[in-house]
Amino acid sequence: MADSKSAKRGTLGGPISDIVETVRAYVMQETVDPLRGVGRFIGFGLLGAVFIALGTGLLLLSLLRFLQTREVHAFHGTWSFVPYLITLVPCVAFIALAISRIGKTGLDRTKDSR
Prior knowledge:
It is built from two helices and no strands. It has helices spanning 2-69, 82-100.
């Protein structure tokens, strides 16, 4: 009887290990691999956002400093806030452009975007 049990274990060990290996490969394919892709997507997105924010901030700051250093007498005294208002216009335009570009597409490229 002991020999028949060991024989059955030997014959079942192959298919069971195949099933376990198949399930493991499926789980890796459906969870771990997409998470790696999401990590790259988020990482590059955050890096791009930081660089765009820094570049835009520096451009706006340079515009403000340019307007403040001009020898226009209208920007002195009680009118010293005008360069800030002039700089606010492209700032609002950049924010509006960024908000208009936000979309729902990105990670799942297999779905139809209709």
